[in-house]
Structures are given as structure tokens and as C-alpha cells.
Amino acid sequence: MDAIVTEGLSKRYGARVAVDALSMAVPAGQVFGFLGPNGAGKTTTIAMLLGLVRPSAGRALIFGRDVWREPAPALADVGAMIDGPAFYPYLSGRDNLLALARAEGLPDGRAAAALAAVGLSDRARDRYRAYSQGMRQRLGIAAALLREPRLLILDEPSNGLDPAGQREIRELIRDLAASGHTIFVSSHQLHEVEQVCDEVAILKAGRLLACGPVAALLRRGRGVLVRVAAEPERAAELLRGLAWVAGVAPHGGSLLVDAPAERAAELSMALAAAGIAVAEIRARDASLEEFFLQTIS
pTM of this prediction? Predict the structure, then answer.
């Protein structure tokens, strides 16, 4: 069963459409990246997933249960960190979690288990005000783990962190996924998302533009870059005529050829046979950032 399913999920505020008929599925047991520029509808979508905002149309399901119709059972298996963690600065990390656990009627042992899960056991008795930003983010994730949820929803977990802190959060997310959690991550850190996520969805103006496994999406931007000394139009026409070339497009003064990188030598030979000099030829690997920018442009 999928951890999250949205079916035509929409939210309108008067004439403004914040989320427009969003339909997607988040497989259980994966790390799923939720991407989009500012104003794309990510925050509104998360609010609907958590039952904080009522959809104008459509529905959201958590492990098969409708969030709006069955909020308690639907959200029982969900932990979330949104808008950054907020704790009492004069209490220790442990005491902050104990306060939250007791407020929810949970056993005290959950606090120690959550601290261990995020690697803060040795700093559990330090006051929150003494924590680094990375430690504060990890404590926020620990709070989301108190109910031992199957699904974690994390909004910008690496926000404001230096590279070392980002690496810590990335490794923590991997560890949590390996322990069986499904993790839904909204983030602007595209390099981080590319390294840690199995699948991603990209939104713009409330609409889903792309969704799928990271590796499959990046294959769309891979190929061979060919720069010819002259006659680029004739070179493109010739390459399009090769049976194993799926397409040719201009790319920053070169030609991006949709063909296997291991056949680059055959491309060069075909051009040379036609009297077209090749100035440069190399394989091209797309990054998630490039794919994202191309998708939302």
C-alpha cells in the first residue's frame, strides 16, 4: 500500500488556486522529495496532508485512510516537522521531548528512543539553547518520531545548515529510511534531494509537472554533447537520421544528442564521413538541479 495518495487534490483561496488537481502516489518505504519554487503549493499540500487545511476538491489518503474524513486513524502513523522546530530554550533536549511525550500521553521511554534515533543521546541533558542549528533540526526530527510513526513529513530539514550539518541530516534520513520509515521531504536543497531521495515530484503554480524515480527523470537529460566546427544544422539533421538516435536539440552552442554515451565514437565517425569536423564530443550527465530548472522554466 502506498504511504500517501492524492487524488485531484485542490485548494482555492477565492480566485487564487494554490494547489490544482494534484494526483500522485508516494510508495511506502521510500524517501520522496517534494520540490517546487516559492509559491508552488508545497506548504499548502503538506497542510492538507496533515489535516490542517481542508481541500477545496479531491482527497488525500495516508496508508489508505482519508485524512479529512478519518483524521485520527489517518494521522496516527504520521510524524511531522514543519516550520522549523520550536522548543523551550532553558530545558534540555531530553526534557523538551519528555514534555511533548507526556502532553500526548506517551511513555517517557519514547523520548530516549527518539534521541537515540537521531544521534543525540550524548547531548540529551544539554540545554536546547546550547544546541547547534544542526542539533536543533535533529531534535525536531526526534519530536516527530515520538509516536513511532511509519511516515515522516519533513519540511526543509536542512534549512539554514552548513555543509556539515546538511550531511548529518542526509545521513539521518538515510538511516531512518533503512529502519523502515517512509520519508516525505519538502526541500530547496536540490543537491541534497538528489543524493537521498528515491523519487521526486515537482510542482509549479500548484500543478504537478513531473513525478517519478530520480534516476528515470535524470535519464531524460542525459546523452552526448557534440560541438561541431561548422554547419550545426546539417550535423543535427544527419544525426537525427541515425536509427539509434532518439533526438537532437541545441544546447548552449552544442548539440545534445539523445543516444547512449558508449556510442559517442560512432556519432563522431558518422559526422566525419559526411565531412563535418567535430570540435568536441563528450557524455552529458544531468543533475536534478538542471532537470528542475528545465521543468519549471
Answer: 0.81
Rounded to an integer, what distance in angstroms lies between the CA atom of residue 157 and that of residue 177? 15
Give how far Cα 221 sits from Cα of 149, 173, 278, Å: 36, 27, 22
Residue 93 to residue 88: CA distance in whole angstroms: 9
CATH architecture, domain defined by 4-216: 3-Layer(aba) Sandwich (3.40)
Strands 254-258 and 247-251: antiparallel
Q: What is the CATH number of domain 220-296?
A: 3.30.70.980
Count of alpha carbons within 13 Å of 213, Cβ hemisphere only? 3
Task: Report residue 291's pLDDT band, with 50, 70 and 90 as the boundaries.
Answer: confident
Domains of the chain, by residue range, sit at 4-216, 220-296
SS3 202: strand
**Joined grid coordinates for residue 153:** 513529513
Confidence of residue 111 (pLDDT cuts 50, 70, 90): very high
Written as nine digits, the cell of 132 is 547547534
List Cα–Cα distances, 105 to 99, 126, 147, in angstroms.
10, 24, 10
Sign of CA dihedral 244, 246, 247, 252: negative
Distance CA 132, CA 145 (A): 20
Report the distance separating Cα 30 and Cα 177, nearest Å: 7
Beta pairing class for 254-258 and 16-26: unpaired
Are 95 and 108 within 8 A, CB to CB?
Answer: no
